[in-house]
């Protein structure tokens, strides 16, 4: 999957995360001001998209996820 640890100001677009052993897309710790758009995730062992970041927020727009938390 895609992990963003203390990552800021990224544009993450048009990616696919399927059947990973952990989360599909995971933003955590101080990650902030990231834009996640038009990504797809299904069938990942954890969650397809998970945002536990403590920063000022991330934007999740127009994605296709099966399971999510925090977005």
Written description of the protein model:
The protein has strands at residues 2-5, 11-13, 16-18, 25-28, 35-37, 40-42, 49-51, 59-61, 64-65, 68-69. The chain is mainly beta and 71 residues long. Strands 1-4-7-10 form a four-stranded parallel beta sheet, with no helix packed on it. It has a three-stranded parallel beta sheet with strand order 2-5-8, with no helix packed on it. The chain is globular, with a radius of gyration of 11 Å.
Quick synopsis:
The chain has 71 residues and is mainly beta. It is 0% helix and 42% strand.
Record keyword descriptors for this entry:
71 residues, mainly beta, 4-stranded parallel sheet, 3-stranded parallel sheet, 0% helix
Portion in beta strands = 35-45%
State the separation between the terminal residues, measured CA to CA.
17 Å
Instruction: Give the strand tally.
Output: 10
The helix content, as a percent range, equals under 10%
- Poorly predicted tracts of residues: none
Number of helices: 0
The structural class is: mainly beta
Order of helices and strands: EEEEEEEEEE
Radius of gyration, taken over Cα atoms and rounded to an integer in Å: 11 Å
Shape: globular
Strand line-up in the sheet with most strands: 1-4-7-10
Q: What is the arithmetic mean of pLDDT? A: 97
Largest sheet features: 4 strands, parallel
Provide the fold topology.
Layout: E1 2-5, E2 11-13, E3 16-18, E4 25-28, E5 35-37, E6 40-42, E7 49-51, E8 59-61, E9 64-65, E10 68-69
Parallel strand pairs: 1-4, 2-5, 3-6, 4-7, 5-8, 6-9, 7-10
């Amino acid at each position: 999957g895609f992990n963003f640890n203390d990552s800021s100001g990224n544009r993450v677009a048009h990616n696919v995360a399927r059947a990973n052993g952990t989360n599909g897309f995971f933003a955590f710790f101080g990650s902030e001001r990231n834009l996640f758009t038009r990504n797809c995730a299904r069938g990942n062992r954890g969650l397809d998209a998970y945002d536990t970041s403590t920063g000022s927020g991330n934007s999740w727009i127009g994605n296709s996820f099966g399971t999510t938390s925090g977005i």
